[in-house]
Amino acid sequence: ASLGPPEVNITSCPNCINVTVKLPTSHFRDKGKLLSLIDIYEELDYDITLKSLNGEHKRPRQKTTEEVFSTVIEELYPSRNYCVSVVVTASLNRHSTPSPWKCVTADLEAQQGYHEVAVAGAVGVSLIIAAVLKCVHAAGFIHQKIALPQTLV
């Protein structure tokens, strides 16, 4: 039996992509319960092929003992489109169907800091407003003190 295509999702991160893989389901049952590939093989190999403008690049084979796992492919060019296909094999079963290609654009490094910059900007504006209000308030008091003697006269 061929190991069906795994379910693959990819998201972008700064200069990298995060690949989440869900192993294909098996058709084997034990006492009516559908067994996972981990139940059957305990450990599986997976190969990720990365496709970009530079062509296809097969990454080193890795092992998993989890049904759902993630791996990050780093040191990518930002703003460039990358596609990923994953194939899962077992030591006893090398027949497998690769996943369909999934594509995403790697983020720029700068986008990561955008949230912090926005928050810092908002805090900065708040502090400026507070300072201005404090000055106006102080000025108001000074103004009143100067105004009081005139009304007494």
UniProtKB/TrEMBL annotation:
Residues 2-105 form the Interferon/interleukin receptor domain. InterPro entries: FN3_sf, Ig-like_fold, Interferon/interleukin_rcp_dom, Type-II_Cytokine-TF_Rcpt. GO terms for cellular component: plasma membrane. It comes from the Eukaryota. Coiled coil: none annotated. SUPFAM superfamilies: Fibronectin type III (SSF49265). This is INAR2 protein. It comes from Orthonyx spaldingii (Chowchilla). The lineage of its organism: Eukaryota, Metazoa, Chordata, Craniata, Vertebrata. The gene is Ifnar2.
